[in-house]
Structure formats: structure tokens, C-alpha cells
Write a structure and sequence with these properties.
alpha/beta; Alpha-Beta Plaits; 5-stranded antiparallel beta sheet; 8-stranded mixed β-barrel; 746 residues; 3 domains; Beta-Lactamase; TIM Barrel
Length: 746
């Protein structure tokens, strides 16, 4: 604890020392930033004010031009009004001449109408505007209000833009015409001028300005505006305003820059200059601070390096003692545990539970390494949940785990082992698929005052026994179990060595034609040529070999040696029509998948694979069915061995379509005494005959058996009544002896 406190105080002092070194530079930087921000704000405000003043000037100019154009147009109308007042009896021709003179003057006027007594009589130009003639302002809803306002106010009224009767859009300026007769004034009618909207906007500069413009007139409500030119949203952009008050209409012009306020206020140069000034002030102080800090950095780096090295050593130590996939302690951790203080004499007993996953290889093969990793991680998590807080779960191999626990009661160790097996029997979800992996466990504990050196080995032997009992079991190590397991393990090790030394050899039992008794084939049977115990039959070692997973290796060895001997016999002038070799379902799939069959040298029809009935039909995978097809295409016959002892259905037999059925010896031997057994054999023969399948009978011990089997319809006989299994050399002598005796050999 004091060491940690000292380290914390040292780090705090180092931190404060680093900050104190740069205090002047930090203070200068803060002051410079404040000055920079204030200057930037002031300059920005000035630029904004200049920009608004410039926009206001442009808006005022546009308003003046617009007002000038409108006043000019109305003044032209006033000229015609004066003409009518002087000559109220003028005809249409005189009106047209006067209007033509007015429209020749540059303006925005495009149509002039005269409405004596509020009914349009004349329009100039007439062409295209005929619809206006006869329009009665008193009855026209669109024109009534403006016309009445002009008459009643005795003043000019400007309305629009509105849709015109003759089509199009325009402003309409209406002025009343009064005839003076002495002192009295008589209302003559209205004179209206249509102002071209687009020309008015263009001549006033609205279409060429670099501002966004909106022109509005007062609406019906007090605070509302009627925007008739531009976008009404401009009024929400803090625009500049100008008013047009011509006595006969009041408009408001609003304007903003097209690219928005402040877009042209280029502050880059100013900010670069200000930044350069700040940098000139701060940089020397930073340089001075860096010089003062350089000495501290060297010391700090050395201390940090020492700390990093210490952490690296701790991390390496952790990694060396733990499995990176499951984060459980590993085999090295277990070895250290067994040699540590944990094993000093205490009142409690130490127990090791060795756990092995039953179907891990199948999941790893079908779901890939990623799926296998998922299984291992889930297994590790479940082990942590099952064991106690003082127990240790370790992964010591591919799918092997060890749990170290202490206690006073061995029954608790066994109970924990069963709990582990039960927990690991729950299916694991891999890629969305439930996989039942399962586990077996072996339990061993330290006896009173016992040595723990062999504790893991004893747990391993108990695990081996659990596997042998059918998996999904938990077995406890006993001395009897140890002796038996060691003997089995020793035999397994000897078998492994025998495979490497080629001590497993094929023996050959001839097969004979039921009628001629000529040799029609041989069956290759494995034997162990033990260097000390002599020739051993399969019953003495094959079950252990299957448990250790060496069936495929033995099948491969027997197949290769058998084909070699067949070639050797051919070279010696001994023709054997075919040779039958026992092959497991697993080995058959491996042969097809690895293309080993294509490398074998044999003649079509002379090699036969014997498959046990119990594994040949039901529940086999698509890979197995495909392998059967590949084998047949290569010219290899399929024969069902021990037929009648399994549970194959006739339907599955038809799907497999073997070349031969071999009746098991347990069915053949009783036929001399049992009528029911003879009927059973007869039924099998009938099945074969209906499917064109040859029938082979093995276990033919006497010539009486041979005679009965011939009468029942069997095709081939095999048994001690004709010949026992023999080595290749013995078979060659047997073959030659039959040949010399004039017996049929092939």
C-alpha cells in the first residue's frame, strides 16, 4: 500500500510540474485568445454594418427608379386626360391618335382604355384587346372597387398586379376624367392605363440586382403584407427596407444579399494576421517551456519504461499461465499449482476432475474452427458457473479441462463431477444450430498422506473408463480400475506401435463355390503378429483399437497389404477371382473423400468391401451414400457382412443394392439341428434371389452344413470345413496343394 501511495504522489507531482513549466505560456495564450476574439468580433460588427448600409443604399436606389417609372407612366396618362377634358366630344379616331402619340413615348404603358360613364368604349391598341370593349366597371366584380375608388376620390388609383380581361397580367393606373363647364365639374368617366409588369421590373433594375428583393403592399389585415414580387421568406431574413409613397399607392421594398448576410465579409486575412501576432507572442514562451521540460521528460521516460517493463513481465506471465481462447488457466498453471503451497499438508483433500468433451471433434469438423472455439468458450463459462469460488477450472488441451477442488468429503467431489457432466450435456448454440456436445469426467483425489504426483494420471484413467462406458459418464478412480486401465492403455500403446512397425498383417480364408468347391475368392482378416505373444486374433485387440480410433488405420493397412498379395499371387500363376476386405463406414467415406481409391491398383470386379449390416444402412449421411456410389463406379463390389444379426430394413437393402449377402455364422451353425434356422436361411436366400444378390454362408464347420446350404440355394461357402484363415505363404501352399491334387482352384 505505501508503495502505491508513493507512486500516486510521484505521478501527481510530475503532472503539476509539467503544468507549472508551461504556466506563463498558457496565460499568454489565454490573453492573446481574448484579444483575438474581441478584435475579431469588433471587425465583424463593422463589416456587417458596412454591408447593411450598402444594401440599404441599393434598396433606396431601386425604390427611386421604380417610383420614377410609375410617375412617368401616370404623367403620360394625365396628358390624355387633359385632351379629353379639352375635347369631351372627341371620337374614337381622335382618341386613337392621341393614345398612339402617348405610347410612342418610352414608358411601361402598353394599353390605354377609355370608359365614359364607367363603360369601356375605346381601347388602344384595339387588336388583341377586343374583349375589354363593353366592360362595365359598375358590374364587374374584379374592376368595381378600383373604379369606384378612382371616381369617388377624384384621384389616381394604382392597382395590381391583376389578371387582365384580355389575358395576361399588369398594373392598372386609373384616373377620373371631369369636364369643367364654367364652375361646375361633370364626371365624364375613367381613363385606365395598363402597365407592363415585366418591363416595369426590368426597367427599374429589379431583375439585374445582386439582391434578393420582395415588394409588398398593405393587405386587408393591419399587420399583414401582400407580397406581389419576390419570395415572402425574404421578410424573415432581417432585410433592409425602402418605401414608395406616391399618393395613389404605398409599396415597401425589402432586400437581402443573395448569398446571405456576411458571406462577403472575408475575415481570413485579418484572422491570419491576428493569429500570427498571437503566435509571435506565445511561441517564445512555449519554446522556453519546452526547454525546461526536456529535463523532466528524460526522467519520466525512464520511469515509464521501468513501469512498462514490469507490466509486460506481468502480462507475459499471465499469458504463459492462461489459455487465450477461454481465459482459463492452462496446463503450465496446473503444473505450478500441483507444486505450490496449495499441496502442503492440510486437513482437506485435493481432488482433480478431468473433463473431456465427447463430440467436440464432430462439431469442429462440421462447424469449422470458429464453431469449435464457440463450444470451448461456452464450456469454460459453464465450468465457472458450476464450480465453487475456491475451485480452479483449467483448460489443459484441445477439448480437455481439469478442475482442482478441495474438501473433506470425497462424495462432494463425485457430486461435482456429475454436476459438470450434467451441465455440459445441455446443447450449445453454434451459428444458430443446437449442437449436443456432452462430456465425460474422471475423478481422483488425494488419499490420506498420499502422494499427489500421480493424481492427474489417475483422473485420466478414470476419464478413460468413463469414455469406455459409453460417454456422458463420470467415473471414480479405484485401484482395480487403475490396474485394468493401465493394462488397456498398455495394450493400446502396443497396438499403436504395432501399426507403426507393420505387425498387423492380413490372413486369408478361402471361399468356395457351393457346387464345384473351387476357390472363388478369399476374405482378408486382420491378425497381430505379436513379437512376444505370437499371432493374436482380432478379439484380443480390435475393440481397444476401435476405442483409440485406429480402425481406419488398420483398414488401410489390411487393404494395401491384401492388394499387394493379390498381385503377388497373380505373378505366381495363382488366380484368385476376388478378395474381400472389411471396411468401416468411416473408412469408406475417408477413402472416397481423399481420392485414395483412385491410387489403388486392382482389376474391376476383383475387390470387394465388406460392410457390417448394423452400420451399413440406417441413418447414414449423404456423404456415406455418395461414397457407396463412388466405390461401385470404380468396379468395387459391396458385400453385407454378418447379415441377419443387424436391424436393416428390406427397403434400405434395396437402396444399397449390394453384390452379396454374407449370412452370419450364428445363423449358419444351428441349421443341422434347427428347422427354424434352416427356414431363416431359406428366407435370406429368397431375398437375395429376388434381388439378384449372391448369398455367402460363413461358419461352415462340417460337410453336413455345406450340403444343407447347397440345398437351400447358397452360392458361396466359407468355414473351417474347407479351410481356416492362413497367412499369404500358407495360402499359396494350400492353393498349390489343391492344384497338385487335381481339385478345382478357380
Amino acid at each position: 500500500m505505501p508503495t502505491s501511495l508513493e507512486k500516486l504522489l510521484h505521478e501527481a507531482g510530475t503532472y503539476l510540474g509539467r503544468r507549472a513549466t508551461f504556466a506563463p505560456a498558457i496565460l499568454a495564450t489565454v490573453v492573446a485568445l481574448i484579444v483575438f476574439v474581441l478584435a475579431d468580433h469588433q471587425r465583424q460588427a463593422r463589416l456587417n454594418a458596412d454591408e447593411r448600409a450598402e444594401v440599404a443604399e441599393k434598396i433606396t436606389s431601386l425604390a427611386a427608379r421604380l417610383q420614377t417609372n410609375l410617375i412617368g407612366d401616370i404623367m403620360l396618362l394625365q396628358g390624355i386626360v387633359a385632351g379629353i377634358a379639352v375635347n369631351p366630344t372627341m371620337d374614337e379616331a381622335e382618341y386613337a391618335r392621341l393614345s398612339a402619340q402617348v405610347l410612342q413615348t418610352p414608358s411601361q404603358l402598353k394599353i390605354i382604355t377609355a370608359a365614359p360613364n364607367l363603360v369601356v368604349r375605346w381601347v388602344y391598341p384595339t387588336h388583341g384587346n377586343e374583349k375589354v370593349i363593353g366592360l362595365d366597371y359598375r358590374t364587374d366584380k374584379q374592376q368595381h372597387d378600383g373604379a369606384m375608388a378612382a371616381r369617388n376620390s377624384h384621384n389616381i388609383v394604382l392597382v395590381g398586379p391583376i389578371h387582365l380581361v384580355q389575358g395576361g397580367e399588369g398594373f392598372i393606373a386609373r384616373t377620373p376624367v371631369y369636364i369643367t363647364d364654367g364652375r361646375a365639374q361633370t364626371f365624364w368617366g375613367l381613363l385606365s392605363g395598363v402597365i407592363d409588369v415585366e418591363k416595369l421590373y426590368s426597367d427599374s433594375g429589379l431583375t439585374t440586382t445582386d439582391l434578393d428583393i420582395a415588394i409588398s403592399s398593405p393587405a386587408a389585415s393591419a399587420n399583414a403584407k401582400n407580397v406581389f414580387y419576390g419570395d415572402a421568406s425574404i421578410l424573415d431574413r432581417d432585410p433592409m427596407f425602402a418605401s414608395l409613397d406616391m399618393g395613389y399607392g404605398r409599396w415597401t421594398i425589402a432586400g437581402t444579399p443573395k448569398s446571405g448576410w456576411g458571406s462577403h465579409n472575408n475575415m481570413t486575412v485579418f484572422r491570419l494576421a491576428a493569429g500570427a501576432v498571437c503566435l509571435a507572442v506565445v511561441a517564445p514562451m512555449l519554446w522556453a517551456g519546452s526547454l525546461a521540460r526536456s529535463r523532466q521528460k528524460t526522467i519520466v521516460k525512464l520511469r515509464e519504461r521501468e513501469s512498462d517493463l514490469m507490466l509486460a513481465r506481468q502480462d507475459m506471465e499471465y499469458q504463459s499461465l492462461h489459455d487465450p481462447l477461454t481465459e482459463l488457466p492452462n496446463r503450465r498453471y496446473l503444473d505450478r499449482l500441483l507444486a505450490s503451497e496449495y499441496l502442503r499438508p492440510e486437513r482437506t483433500l485435493l481432488s482433480l476432475i478431468h473433463v473431456d468433451l465427447d463430440a467436440f471433434k464432430e462439431v469442429n469438423d462440421s462447424r469449422g474452427h470458429a464453431g469449435g472455439d464457440t463450444v470451448l468458450r461456452v464450456t469454460a463459462s459453464r465450468l465457472r458457473d458450476v464450480i465453487g469460488p475456491d475451485d480452479v477450472a483449467m483448460r489443459i488441451g484441445g477439448d480437455e479441462f481439469v478442475i482442482a477442488t478441495r474438501g473433506d468429503n470425497p462424495k462432494a467431489f463425485v457430486s461435482l463431477a456429475h454436476s459438470i457432466v450434467r451441465e455440459l450435456s445441455t446443447p450449445i448454440l453454434v451459428d444458430g444450430v443446437e449442437c449436443k456436445v456432452g462430456a465425460s469426467a474422471g475423478v481422483a483425489w488425494q488419499r490420506e498422506n498420499g502422494n499427489v504426483a500421480h493424481l492427474l494420471g489417475n483422473a485420466d484413467l478414470a476419464l478413460y473408463e468413463a469414455k469406455r462406458q459409453g460417454r456422458g459418464q463420470a467415473e471414480v478412480f479405484t485401484r482395480k480400475l487403475g490396474d485394468a486401465a493401465r493394462a488397456t492403455k498398455k495394450l493400446g500403446d502396443e497396438i499403436e506401435a504395432a501399426i507403426e512397425r507393420n505387425e498387423l498383417v492380413p490372413y486369408f480364408q478361402p471361399q468356395f463355390d457351393v457346387n464345384t468347391h473351387s476357390i472363388v475368392g478369399v476374405e482378408a482378416l486382420v491378425r497381430w503378429d505379436h513379437p512376444e505373444r505370437g499371432i493374436l486374433a482380432p478379439a484380443q485387440f480390435l475393440s481397444v483399437a476401435e476405442e483409440r480410433g485406429w480402425s481406419s488405420a488398420i483398414d488401410r493397412l489390411v487393404l494395401q497389404r491384401s492388394l499387394f498379395e493379390l498381385t503377388r499371387w497373380d505373378a505366381a500363376g495363382m488366380y484368385v477371382p476376388r478378395i474381400s476386405v472389411n471396411v468401416s463406414a468411416q473408412r469408406l467415406v475417408e477413402l472416397a473423400n481423399r481420392w485414395e481409391l483412385s491410387s489403388l491398383v486392382f482389376q474391376r470386379g476383383r475387390l470387394c468391401f465388406e460392410l457390417l449390416e448394423s452400420i451399413s444402412f440406417e441413418g447414414q449421411s449423404a456423404a456415406f451414400q455418395a461414397s457407396i456410389q463412388n466405390v461401385k463406379e470404380l468396379g468395387i463390389d459391396i458385400e453385407i457382412d454378418d447379415f441377419g444379426t443387424g436391424h436393416a430394413s428390406i427397403l434400405s437393402l434395396l437402396e444399397l443394392r449390394p453384390r452379396r449377402l454374407k449370412i452370419d455364422r450364428q445363423i449358419v451353425m444351428p441349421i443341422t439341428q434347427s428347422t427354424s434356422q434352416r427356414r431363416l436361411v431359406s428366407s435370406i436366400v429368397e431375398i437375395g434371389r429376388s434381388q439378384n444378390i449372391e448369398i455367402v454362408a460363413e461358419g461352415v464347420e462340417t460337410m453336413e452344413h455345406a450340403s444343407i446350404l447347397r440345398d437351400l440355394g447358397c452360392h458361396v461357402l466359407q468355414g473351417y470345413a474347407f479351410a481356416r484363415p492362413m497367412s499369404s505363404e500358407e495360402f499359396m501352399r494350400f492353393y498349390e496343394a489343391r492344384k497338385q491334387a487335381g481339385q478345382h482352384v478357380a
